[in-house]
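Let's sit down with a protein and look at its sequence and fold side by side. Please make up or recall a protein chain and show it to me in full. Label the sequence line and the structure token line clearly, so we can match residues to local backbone shapes. Go ahead whenever you are ready, and we will take it from there.
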Amino acid sequence: MKIPLFPWLFLIPFLTIFFGVNVFLVSGQCRKDQQSLLLQLKNTLVFNQSLSAKLVKWNSTSDCCEWPGITCDEGSGRVISLDLSFESITGGLDDSSGLFRLQFLQSLNLSFNIFSTALPVGFANLTDLISLNLSSAGFTGQIPNDFSKLTKLVSLDLSALSFPGGPAVLKLEKPNFATLVQNLTHLTELLLDGVNISAHGNDWCKALSSSLPNLKVLSMSNCYLSGPLDASLAKLQSLSMIRLSGNNLSAPVPEFLANYSKLTALQLSSCQLNGIFPQAIFQVPTLEILDLQYNKFLQGSFPEFHQNLSLRTLLLSNSIFSGTVPQSIGELQKLSIIELAGNNFTGPIPYSMANLTKLFYLDLSSNMFTGTLPSFSKSKNLTYVDVSRNQLTGEIPSSHWEGLRSLTYVDLGYNAFNGIIPSSLFAIPPLQKIQLSNNRFGGQIPEFPNVSSSLLDTLDLSSNKLEGSIPSSVFGLAKLNVLELSSNKLNGTLQLHRIQKLPNLTTLGLSYNNLTVYASGGNSNMSSLPQIKKLRLASCDLGMFPYLRNQSKLFHLDLSDNQITGPVPGWISELIVLQYLNLSRNLLVDLEGPLSLPGLSILDLHHNQLRGSIPVPPSFITYVDYSSNNFSSFIPPNIGTWPRLQIVDLAFNHFRGNLPNICLKTWEGMMEVGNRSLEHIRYDPLKLTNGLYYEDSITVTLKGLELELVKILTVFTSADFSSNNFEGPIPDAIGQKHASVKLIDAISLYGVKLIEEFYRTDIINNKMAIFLRGAIVLPQIGK
């Protein structure tokens, strides 16, 4: 018997009420139309099934409201929340997608996927959305104007990882920022980090204050915003988080920020801030995070702190804060992260910091702190300590490090600490880096008590006054990557092949001790060495060339001052990544082959017995020292093809013929080309050392006086041709008004048989001193 359709429709609500029956449900809570849209969405999305934790589990046999990432309304069975974050989705989302017909969605999260497409306009169909999170989802291009139709939004997150100066993933042009937010009046959270907004201070500040009166979280880092912060922002009294790092605000920090009674985070790093930072902001009772890093024109000092402050994270690195750190910092009992590196703080490190029991990260490096180091033994969660490059003194009691079972990083370098190294420091199980270089520590190096379980990867004790032999336990540190013991008073003997017990070692420094290092000349004991990148064995009484032919990753080699005899082995040219080579102050007599090293930047062969023609290094050499050898030929013409050369020393040889004019006209590294940056000469093995670089000393001879320059400005240039048999006229390039050498800081010609007196007055614009026949001829002095 057929039953008319109308009566059945009439009965549906009653069946639902009295018997709990919902004819639109597939099973449990799931509505059939909702399940169909979700399965359609799954089938159209492109995703990595092996990495999926949600989509891969969606199927038609189970209740869609139980699927991972899905939340349904209990009464209606409609999908109200969809979370597909971290699903490795790469495509399949367009305006016709089933996603945009889930019109009852209140929360949508597609963050951390890889869509790599423009934002679909279809998002504007989801007008019930309260929360929309598309952060780091890979969307690109213009944010559609229709997004302003999502008027119920309380939280909008379109942020993406970005870096100052890097490309923006999303942008706001048409609509601009003001148009986007004008209808989103319910927003309390706005996160647009990395979106190219490119708005001026007055515009974006007034758009926020007029359209978003309830805003609590404002996060717009790296958005190409300019300043200053307009006073209209003071209206947003509900603000708790302000994150504007990486914008070019170029203005002082306004006083009104101290009036936000609910402020918990203020992050303004890398904003080109200037002026004096208002001390009142430090005193905001609710403030937990203050980040002002990398504002090199921002001045400030600390006020006295009181107990009721909430500061947990204090980041002021690389600004120009000064003054002392008050003892009252010990009142900040919640303080866990302190970064004050690269400022001008003076005075002692407050002993009250010993009371910061929640402290786990401390960086006070590169300031002018004086006095002794306080104890951190109460900070049981401390993981990182860096007080390097200060003026700290005194001994460090072993008790300072006792009980620190979480410490992984310690850097006390470039201070004036003395006494013995605390043995308790070497006994901390999770410690990975110990850097104590350039101090006055004496005595012997302590043994490591837990060698087999040690995680230590860096041990730098160089430039101290340590004595005795190298402890045997050092060679049991299997994870060790850097071992620097140079410039101490260590003694004894060391077979170089012992380092094969350190399979991860990439940096070994033993220079300038009283050590005798034995290195086999054959490959029997050396072929099993780990792949070293930086090897410093200066003044180690080697006597012979160590066999390093298999060291294919070696970029720094210093074997100077070792009385090594014989020729420079031809296999040196097989070390194709070598950038720094110092073989000076030995007894080398010849080269077995050319120095065909494509990346070589610094070459030092001075004070040997090398003879014949000079080896011509690669074209991108920066520093060459062939002085004090027995070279006797003419200067080869291709010596003029060194565009980056800044320092060259050919003195005290037997070179003959004319001084090559072509060199001084083509050495572009000595030319006045634009403005040279005030950096230091260095070679940068960025691709080889995970971001580390080294600055090494070089030797420059001025008027016969040998000077070691530990850090030399890239604007410094020097050429020394003195004490040779050059003859003929002074090259035209020297002294010409537009000569390539007019920025050379020092050029030595004394002892050279030049036939022309030097009376030119137009040389190098007061920039250069000329050493001629033993006398200094200053610019503007002449006939």
